[in-house]
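Review form for a predicted model. The reviewer records the input and the model, then writes brief findings.
Reviewer: anonymous (R2)
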Amino acid sequence: MKRKLALPHSLDLIEYEIVYSRRRTMAIKIDPEGNVKVYAPQGTSDQAVGKMVESKAAWLCRNLAEIRSANAGAVSRHFTEGETFPFLGRDYPLQVKVKPAAQRITVTLEEDKFEVMTPVADEDIVRGAMEAWYRRSATEYINTRIHHFQSLLPVAPVRVTIRNQKTRWGSCSNRGSLNFNWRLMMAPAEVVDYVVVHELCHLLHPNHSKNFWNQVSAVLPDYRARQDWLKKNGVRLNF
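Model under review:
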C-alpha cells in the first residue's frame, strides 16, 4: 500500500511505498522511474516511517526533480534507416538492407554504422534483432570486464546473467549470482565498468555500507562521476 506525505509549508506530496523485511534499519530508495520505496524492519509503525521520510524530504525533492528532468529527455527510437543507436557511448546510424532472399535477419556493427540485413522491412523484427545483438554483446563484454576486475577484487560470481531489467542496471543475489541490464551496452565504457565493480563489491559487502563504498572507491576513485552520469542519462539508454 502506498502512502502520501504532505511536505511542511508546501502543497507538494511525496508518495512512497513501505516494504517490510527482517532488516534492522530503515532505508529509502528511488528507482529510475521516480518511485519511492521505504525499506523498514518488520513491525515499524507508519508514524515512524513517516517521520523518517519527512526528515529526508529535501533530499527526496531534489532527487525526484532530477529524475523528472531526466525523464523529460527520454528518447523514442524507430527501427528505420538513419535512426541512431548508442553503443559504449558512441552513436551509430542504422542502415537497413532488405533482401527477400535472406534466410534470416542479421545485425553487424561496422566502423561507422549498424547494418541490419533483413528479408522484410518490419520495425518489430528489426527491433527484436537489435535487442538480441545488444544482449549478445553484453554477455561477451561484461564477462570480459568482470574477469579484468577480478584481478583487483578477491571475488568470483557464481553466475552472470544478462536480463531485461526495467528499474535496475545490475543486481547481486544472496547466492552470489550477478545480473546486468543489457541496456548498459549503450552507456560509455567507464559507466559499464562502474556497474560491474558495484556488483562485484556486493559479493564482499551485501549492502551499501561505508565499507562497501570504500571498496568501490578503492577500485574506481572517480566512481561518483560515473554514478552521476548514469543517474542523469540512464533514461536515454533505451529503445
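Findings: The chain has six helices and eleven strands.
Further findings: Residues 4 and 125 are 43 Å apart (CA to CA).
Recommendation: see findings above.
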